[in-house]
Amino acid sequence: MNKSEQIKKAITNYLNSIKELKRLGIIKTNPSLGEVGEFLCLLVYPGLELAESPTNPCYDALFNGKKIQIKFTDSSLAGNFNVGDPNNYDELIFITGPNSCHRNPSEPDERKKLYLFYRYSSAEVIDKFKSGSNYSISKTKHFKLAERVWAL
Question: How far apart are CA 127 and CA 121, in angstroms?
Fold first, then answer.
């Protein structure tokens, strides 16, 4: 098995384990999903560099001279997904896993088992995703199809 296949298998196993631990009532949150999302971005956006501090509250990476906020969800729960303050970053890369209810419902059927990468400028986030005092994506609040995909 090559490294790419090992990575896909490990991520799939990890996400399935989280789902099972939630079903059993052992955990309620998604530990380390941010790091998984950041790693996926490294795979699909050549040249993207993670921020020096993994706990930087404003942005997660640099790409083509821009500050990038990375958010990842594979949750089937329909709550709004907070995407941080767009005044602190230039672009948002929002990744949805195959189980996520936050995928654009207009995505073609052949993308159902793929990881989808949506890319929004901070201006788009401010304009489209304002929700009270926060910025968030709901399961119906997309306005474009995924820019890139990654297969399981």
Answer: 10
